[in-house]
Amino acid sequence: MEFDKAASNIDQSTSTRLRLPPWLRRRPPKARPVAHLRNTAFDPLVNTVCEQAKCPNRGECYARKTATFLLCGHVCTRTCSFCAIEYLSAPPLNPDEPEAVAKSVEALGLKYVVLTMVNRDDLPDGGAAHVVRVLQAIRARVGDVPIEVLASDFNGNLDSVQKILDAQPVVFNHNIETVPRLYAVVRPEAIYERSLGVLQYAAECVKREASRVKRQSNSHLQDTLHASRFTLEIKSGLMIGLGETDAEVLQVLKDLRAHGVTVVTIGQYLRPSPRHAEVQRYSTPEHFRMYRDEGMKLGFKEVFSHPFVRSSYHAGETYFKVA
């Protein structure tokens, strides 16, 4: 496989703003069904990444009565140039948020829940204990629903990572977002190696728990792990279109696999506003299929790669496919 062929991508010139290609044009969601869902299913205290990050899939997901809950407030302590979430001084955590999210999960009748969070570098544990309280509130209200946690890097605080793992989500997700060369521009407060370290720590915890459970039981390992409700999958994701090369993307995939990641999402970066990083290229659906093919060769259980893919897009279907 040869990379960086001009035929695989739309013009990557940055001298003029790139036009949105046909495969990335979607009709906006109908206002009435979306408003009805917001008003009837979401508690007023609840934030969703669907709205805060202006996700292009929110109309489809709302129609399917799915959403990704944004925890620890609606403002972030970091200045990532790709993200539509506001950067402001973060307010105190809302103690009523766990129960509010749990009520919304119940109202939506969700069979799979995704919890994500803003970065809270102002808190000693980065907000990990608060995320755990939300997870516990959901289980107290609706029972043993599978929960995926898309976590921050907690500034490399592995005790915070451990708090999340001890709460036993079915998926631990932390996005690598882009290639290391672009971190200074795209994720200036993040560190590529630190994110890999968080993912590796989670993967090693899964291996240790799997070994412990296997020693204690003669039953099939996968069934035993499901019974223990310990994290089964380590997941990460990245965006295409910020100036990376295909060779760099492939290297990120190799790094993720080497650090224990089992599921990867790859999607097209779309500029939220003129003040955010410009799109450097739009990759075709065929190009995204190439990423998937190359990733699957590396041994991932799933590489969900498509222009509209986001970290939590079809997260439940992906989990049940690979678990």
Per CATH, the superfamily is Aldolase class I
Number of helices: 12
State Rg: 19 Å
Integer tally of domains: 1
CATH architecture descriptor name: Alpha-Beta Barrel
> In what order do the strands lie side by side in the largest sheet?
1-2-5-6-7-8-9-10
What's the helix and strand layout?
Blueprint (H helix, E strand, L loop, with lengths): L30 H11 L5 E2 H4 L5 H6 L4 E4 L3 E2 L9 E2 L9 H12 L4 E5 L10 H15 L4 E4 L7 H9 L4 E3 L9 H4 L5 H25 L4 H8 L4 E8 L5 H13 L4 E6 L16 H13 L4 E4 L9 H8 L1
Parallel strand pairs: 2-5, 3-4, 5-6, 6-7, 7-8, 8-9, 9-10
Antiparallel strand pairs: 1-2
Helix pairs in contact: 4-5, 5-6, 6-8, 8-9
Which features does this protein show?
single chain, alpha/beta, TIM Barrel, 323 residues
Task: Characterize the structure shown.
- The structure is a single chain.
- With 323 residues, this protein is α/β, with parallel strands linked by helices.
- The chain has a single domain (6-322), classed as TIM Barrel (Alpha-Beta Barrel).
- It has 12 helices and 10 strands.
- It has helices at 31-41, 49-52, 58-63, 97-108, 128-142, 158-166, 183-186, 192-216, 221-228, 246-258, 285-297, 315-322, and strands at 47-48, 68-71, 75-76, 86-87, 113-117, 147-150, 171-173, 233-240, 263-268, 302-305.
- It has an 8-stranded mixed beta sheet with strand order 1-2-5-6-7-8-9-10, with helices on both faces. A two-stranded parallel ribbon has the order 3-4.
- Helix 4 (97-108) packs across helix 5.
- The longest helix has 25 residues, at 192-216.
- The protein starts with 30 loop residues before the first helix and ends with a helix.
- The model is unreliable at 1-15 (pLDDT under 50).
